[in-house]
Amino acid sequence: MIHFKRLDHILISIPEGKKEEARTFYGDVLGLKEVPGEHPGGALWFSIAGIELHFREETAGPYSKRHPAFEIANLDEAKQQLENHGIGITYSSEIDGRQRFFFHDPFDNRIELLQFAE
Question: Nearest CA to 75 among 19, 117, 30?
Fold first, then answer.
């Protein structure tokens, strides 16, 4: 059984070339605090209500990188459980202090599970 702890972040896709517009809207208009740093894929990260919103430029197409990310307590066990059900696991860029992987549900929604290093 996967032990879910909380929603960690949501990745929202934005059109290519719109990063500064997203920064202005979410930072200046909505007043969200930007999380500084060099993030995977050149993403913008903002804090909101105890979670993060990640914004990443993406070309329109049939498969999107948008996804919710859930913090869990047992990443290795979760991976084994999903693989036992024939669900494929994929990996992406590394984020300091976090281990993570992705999978798709039966409806092709991308989902991330992550665990913070202790």
Answer: 117
Find the CATH number of the domain harbouring 95. Answer: 3.10.180.10
- Tally of domains in the chain: 1
Instruction: Give dist(CA 56, CA 44) in Å, integer.
Output: 7
> pTM for this structure?
0.71
> Each residue of 33-57: pLDDT tens digit?
999 999 999 999 999 889 999 999 9
First to last CA, the chain: 21
Query: Can you give the residue range of the structural domain that contains 25?
Result: 4-116
Please list, in sequence order, all residues whose beta carbon lies within 8 angstroms of the beta carbon of residue 105, skipping any fewer than 6 positions away: 111
Cβ burial of 76 (10 Å; 0-12, 13-18, 19+) is exposed
